[in-house]
Design a protein that fits this description.
Mean pLDDT: 93
InterPro entries: aa-tRNA-synth_II/BPL/LPL (IPR045864), Biotin_CoA_COase_ligase (IPR004408), BPL_C (IPR003142), BPL_LPL_catalytic (IPR004143), Transcriptional_repressor_C (IPR008988)
GO molecular function, one term: biotin--[biotin carboxyl-carrier protein] ligase activity
Helix content: 10-25%
Strand order of the largest sheet: 1-2-5-9-8-7-6
Bound molecules: adenosine-5'-triphosphate, biotin
EC number: 6.3.4.15
Largest sheet: 7 strands, mixed
Number of domains: 2
CATH topology of the largest domain: BirA Bifunctional Protein, domain 2
Protein name: biotin--[biotin carboxyl-carrier protein] ligase
Number of strands: 14
Keywords: ATP-binding, Biotin, Ligase, Nucleotide-binding
Length: about 250
């Protein structure tokens, strides 16, 4: 895979021929790298997913992108927005490539007709000094190369051309723009405009959902919004619950 054009968008873009996990490499080097530095590989051998799962991609079939964010002067409670902005950025980058577009499942999975084409893993740096936002994008895997029946690739979903560099550039342009918009909107603690965009893109809002909470409990209800800290608000028989982390399933009633 070749990467050509993305360097102008971010201060540091390093293409690794191979990496265990780009999130791990970037976290280890975060102290020496600037805000919005990016590591990318098309050959990630030890990818990690959310909730301790593996992220599996055969060499040369997928992109692994990790972006370092070092926002200055933000309260750590605001950090919950960044994974949502990454999901929105990726949905804008991938949406035009496939017939029928993409959907975002809260917090940041990007789906095509319900199947996962991109997963995002946001990890805090020690002392809340920043975050690493990792995104895995399934580009050209065949059905047999995907780990589950509910995952897909851009090629399988009907993208006519799958250019890794174009996907990378589009994502970085969208993410860096949203990130700068977020930082410059610090006068509006509710981030109303950005919140509206995230809610608009998030397919989960307005749907009946089951949320498997980190405690192991299940929450059944309807997703009705996103709160000031980026948490999903679920309305159930027990009232409203703000969910910071969990596995969401869209239910079809
Ligand atoms: N390349 C990949 N593409 C999609 N899913 C992957 C990939 N590699 C590993 N996985 C993992 O396979 C599982 C896919 O599960 P599934 O598509 O059923 O969605 P899910 O359980 O709702 O996922 P999630 O918990 O991320 O919302 C997830 O745990 C995901 O992290
Ligand atoms: O479980 C998920 O949905 C999140 C998957 C995140 C995968 C990406 S690939 C780039 C970065 N490096 C990793 O080890 N994980 C993330």
């Amino acid at each position: 895979m070749e990467f050509r054009r993305s360097r102008a968008i971010v201060p540091v873009l390093e293409v690794l021929p191979e990496a265990g996990s780009t999130n791990d490499v970037l976290r280890a080097r975060a102290g020496d790298l600037p805000d919005l530095a990016v590591l990318v590989t098309g050959n990630q051998t030890g990818g990690r997913g959310r909730l301790g799962r593996d992220w599996v991609t055969p060499p040369g079939t997928a992109l692994a992108i990790s972006v370092l964010l070092k926002p200055v002067g933000l309260p750590p409670t605001s950090f919950g927005w960044f994974p949502l902005l990454a999901g929105l950025a990726m949905s804008r980058a991938l949406g035009p490539l496939v017939p029928g577009g993409v959907q975002v499942k809260w917090p940041n999975d990007v789906l095509i007709e319900g199947d996962k084409v991109c997963g995002i893993l946001a990890e805090l740096l020690p002392g809340m000094s920043g975050l690493v936002i990792g995104a895995g994008v399934n580009l050209v895997q065949t059905r047999e190369q995907l780990p589950t029946a509910t995952s897909t690739s851009l090629a399988l979903a009907g993208a006519e051309v799958v250019d890794p560099d174009a996907v990378l550039s589009a994502y970085l342009i969208q993410l860096s723009t949203l990130y700068r918009d977020f930082l410059s909107a610090s006068g509006d603690p509710n981030r109303s405009a950005l919140r509206d965009e995230v809610v608009e893109a998030c397919h989960t809002i307005g749907r009946p959902v089951r949320v498997q909470l980190p405690s192991g409990d299940d929450l059944l209800g309807t997703a009705v919004g996103i709160d000031d800290d980026g948490r999903l608000i679920v309305e159930s028989d027990a009232g409203r619950t703000a969910v910071a982390a969990g596995d969401v399933t869209h239910l079809r009633y």
